[in-house]
Write the structure tokens for this entry.
Amino acid sequence: MEDNNNKENFLKRLKQGLSRTRKGFVKNVDEMVFGEKVISRDLFNDLEEILIMADMGPAFTYDLIEEMKECAKRNELQNPGALKQLLKNYMINILKESEKPLCIPHNGPYTIMVLGANGTGKTTTIGKMASHFSKAGMSVMLVAADTFRAAAIEQLEIWSQRVNAPLIKQKMGADPSAVVFDAIHAAQSKKSDVLIIDTAGRLHTKVNLMEELKKTSRIMGRELEGAPHETLLVLDATTGQNAISQAKMFHEEIGVTGIVITKLDGTAKGGILIRIAREMSIPIRYIGIGEGLDDLRVFKSEEFVNALFE
């Protein structure tokens, strides 16, 4: 359980991390809403533009505007301030559907296969997850199955030393499925609680990459029942629409069971979270709002929306 100080510190960091989105989105909503005395067609048109600009996506925007129009007809929106509250509640309701924290059972090894394009913060996310699990009293093992980039292996090695977690690796260019094969048997013999596998993200060789990931997944399933237990996709919030395309591609090819959204502190379009929740229906496990170890946090919809609006 987090103590109150930790929670307050995190909420402060969350607000800071979402400051660009707040300035680009909530500030526009406030200016639009509080400059008006009545709900009008122009108000809905302006709101629609703001929502689209914040990368919340056409489906969410259309549904929300229609809901607001219905509420206005029933005189449930007496003033534009009520419209803002409805917007906030609607966002929480959408995001709540994706609020499903990762639950690690006690009969390990629990295998987490981490996917994502190069540059999304995948390896850093793995290091931060390993730190979280270790602090929770779990034994963690890391696996360098991105054997095509020396930098990826080196970066994971640094994280393994930092969080005191053993690393299974082979030389650069080795078959990733062979690395994973060794790792599963090592995790079983050492009775590790969690096995986190870093994979390649070379999207320019998409066909080869997907076949390689499928093979790795098959080997895992063959050597350990139910593996991979979690297929976690890391998305970079700063890429906006591109993050949606990547999510759809990885999900169609591999089957994603959870999502991590990183770099929310580096974008004015944090609304991409809404779009992912609305269009993908895949649990959002974690969000990243900075470089610190504690800046990768379990996703909580109300915390997120409140930090965005306050």
